[in-house]
Amino acid sequence: MCTGKCARCVGLSLIPLSLICIVANALLLVPNGKTTWTNVNHLSLQVWLMAGFIGGGLMVLCPGIAAVRAGGKGCCGTGCCGNRCRMLRSVFSSAFGVLGAIYCLSVSGAGLRIGPKCLRNSEWGYHFEDTLGTYLLNHTQWDLCEEPPHVVTWNVTLFSLLVAASCLEIVLCGIQLVNATLGVFCGDCRKKEDATH
């Protein structure tokens, strides 16, 4: 596959993944779909670190757009430089995307391990922190959180989605990093007539 076509495919995959991370992080701010508990005292630190919005979202959206652009026409509009200029930009933005996805993965993984902040026995706190993540397999413990309602299910689902999306983003940004590096040195193997489409 040509470096330009590969870049376009990777970019078109990264853009929806970054949007999924942004939406998942936004939903974490409103447990059970309500703003009643959206304040510093009722949400976990991992939610406020905005890893899905900043790391898996915006820091990956930029490489996604750069990769789509790198898969387009050359810098002069006719592919004269074999898209080397855009591929070089895509190398740096893909490395930036890998860092963002790693940030999202590490914060989301910590959010899963520690568990949500919730009200239990009239006390707000991280009541699953000492379980070291074993609460994930023991669903009977999930109902011990009195408020926000269904917060454990909400957090586990959304943080799991962020972990899965950020893993895919790391792989795709890594592929684009290698692909763009090849594109810088080798150019785009598409014929000139293909580059105008």
UniProtKB/TrEMBL annotation:
Sequence intervals crossing the membrane: 7-28, 48-70, 91-114
Molecular function in Gene Ontology: arginine binding
Pfam families with a match to the protein in the record: L6_membrane
Keyword Transmembrane helix among record annotations: yes
Gene Ontology CC, one term: plasma membrane
Keyword Zinc-finger among record annotations: no
Keywords, in A-Z order: Membrane, Transmembrane, Transmembrane helix
Subcellular location: Membrane
GO biological process: regulation of G1/S transition of mitotic cell cycle
Membrane topology term: Multi-pass membrane protein
Sequence similarity: Belongs to the L6 tetraspanin family.
Protein name, as recorded: Transmembrane 4 L6 family member 5
Organism: Carlito syrichta
Name of the gene this protein is made from: TM4SF5
